[in-house]
Amino acid sequence: MTSRCEETVPLLSPLGDGELAPDDRAWVEEHLAGCESCSARLRFLSAQGAALREHVRARGATRSLDGLAGSVLARIRREKGARRPWDALAVFHADVVRPHRAGIGALALAACLALAFVWQDAGPGPSRQARLALNDAAGTSASIDDLEYDDGSDGAVLQLRGRNGLDGPATTVIWMSDRPSAAQ
Amino acid sequence: MTLSAPAAAAIVLAFAAPAFADPAQAKPAEVDAGAEPGEAATMPVGQRVRITVRTIAATRDEQPRGVDGKLAPIAQDLLAFASAFNYTSYLLIEEQTFDLDWKAPAQMELPGSRSLQVTPRQLGADGRIKVHLEVLGQHPEHARRLHTDYSVPRGRTILVGGYRLDPAKPEGGTLLIAITQAVEK
Asked: Is B121 within 8 Å of chain A by CB?
């Protein structure tokens, strides 16, 4: 990884989200044109985003929000005025949480992304081993029971539906992103 | 962005536990394909597994060639793949079909002096096929690059991708391996 790669990697997610300034975007795209490693990482991030969106859509499709607002307002009215021991948390929220909402939001985002790349390598060391079952509710797709890979790769498991729609079976993809050091 | 495995696992447990079934609870009752008594009712003697392995060159070409007609049996899987990866051409490199006994491995050479070994392990009571898959690195070291156990409904395909088509040519496209499992009656 070159120093320019190190500068590029943090900009890949904003690039994918269309949040880079034109100058930064041109700088990153110039680098991507000649760097397969960063290009692969960008594709990897894009796939993770697609998997996350798919997962959220699938979860949302099974939830009914009918009457949600009414039940929330009813509960607020019911509990209004009742002093509870955990009301002290409101102070904590005002003093600590609110000023750091961006960071907490980032943590929540990281949690969501973790759905898609639980196996991403954290750096040098022994082979990574993880165990996770990505079982879809209908049981119509493959599930990964065990996965181990060498240090030269980043790994992810994606459940992609594409044009099959939410009701169709997902296509399971094990994606191993080669690093430059892995190539001979 | 990088997460260590323990941190990611902790986050998944904290935020996503309801999203996925507990593997221990979701694990169906299985019949070992080896020599467990009483398995004949679930797994008739002589039943074999047919596994088709297709190696595919996924590339980004100035003139997209789309999906090779020879890949029609797995076109839906490739379309799903293409929804997340911006490759424009999918060409079949090689296709091999193996007629296997349970726990009998099949081997296949991959581009770039790599190889693959696939072994049907068990048939679950729900009809899902359990498979062990290994991808071995370049000769002569044959270092194991990946090994995994997965279960899949009959007839379904799993894709393994990301390795360079030619390890020496970063711009040469990606090797995509499609493995389709079926049980012969």
From this structure: no
